Amino acid sequence: MTDVLLDVRDLDAGYGAVGVLDQFALSVGAGEIVCLIGANGAGKSTALKCISGLLAPRRGSIVFAGQDITRTPAHRIVELGLAHVPEGRRIFPRLSVLENLRLGAFLRTDSAGIAQDTDLSFSLFPILAERRHQSGGTLSGGEQQMLAIARALMSRPRLLLMDEPSMGVAPLITARIFEAICALNRQGLSILLVEQNARMALSMANRGYVLETGRVTVKGLAAHLATDERVKKAYLGG
Predict the structure, then answer these.
(1) Quick one: which of 157, 6, 167, 193 has its CA closest to 82?
(2) Domain boundary assignment for the chain
(3) 4-87+159-235 in CATH: which number?
(4) Measured CA distances, 203 to 84, 168, 217, 231, 235 (Å)
(5) How far is the CA of 111 from the CAs of 88, 95, 131, 149, 154, in angstroms?
(6) DSSP letter at 157?
(7) Which of 28, 5, 25 shows the shortest CA–CA distance to 81?
(8) 8 Å CB contact between 211 and 24
């Protein structure tokens, strides 16, 4: 693996008295796409929330770019270069596309750079340029997903966490989104991907982890996981 950008070790987390993650461990190397697959309720979204600072873990450590961020506030984690595209998009429905993008850059003060990154978002997802003055809530599900990704990119992250980008999205738009993910990765962006379409996730990732009831049970090169009989039977319809 290349230089480690994200290193998560022995993470326990949950909600109230309910435990979700149990000694969860994962790493992402610089320039990698790493996928995290598992059944609904396995703890995938909880893992991403812990990494991005939205949920405090009960124990364990999270190190990003050599800095311990285990107890770091979410806004500070964004400043450090880690952005999260949450499940369900979570855009601001009453704000325009352009206003949503500007909120993605709320920690930045470089007006010229913000304008440049807005143009880059529009080149990545041209439909957003056409809809720039349209309120986010009037976009289709796929367009909202594009907006959520573009908004996260406005913080200029080194690592992008993506939670179920294909959920509720038409197949043609899903293909466009995954083309964009691959293009961003070729430009050097590291990506940690949670995705319900395990076959697609493994086809584009360098490495993968399988999460079952809060624990990583299988991990390795994505190509190897795609041929692992346990993974095929449970997640690939084989």
Answers:
(1) 157
(2) 4-87+159-235
(3) 3.40.50.300
(4) 22, 20, 20, 13, 13
(5) 29, 20, 22, 20, 12
(6) -
(7) 5
(8) yes
CA angle, residues 139, 93, 105, in degrees to nearest 5: 100
In this predicted structure, the answer to whether residue 100 has a pLDDT above a threshold of 70 is yes
- Please give the single-letter amino acid code of residue 102: R
Cα separations (Å) of 22 from 26, 42, 46, 209? Answer: 12, 11, 11, 14
- Per-residue model confidence (pLDDT) at position 2: 61
Q: Do residues 110 and 70 make contact, with C-beta atoms less than 8 angstroms apart?
A: no
Strand partners, 19: 14
Confidence of residue 173 (pLDDT cuts 50, 70, 90): confident
Please give the Cα distance from 148 to 125 (Å, whole number): 11
Burial of 3-29, coded b for 16+ CB within 10 Å and e otherwise, reads: eebbbbeebbbbeeeeebbeebbbbbb
For β-strands 215-221 and 207-212, DSSP reports them as antiparallel
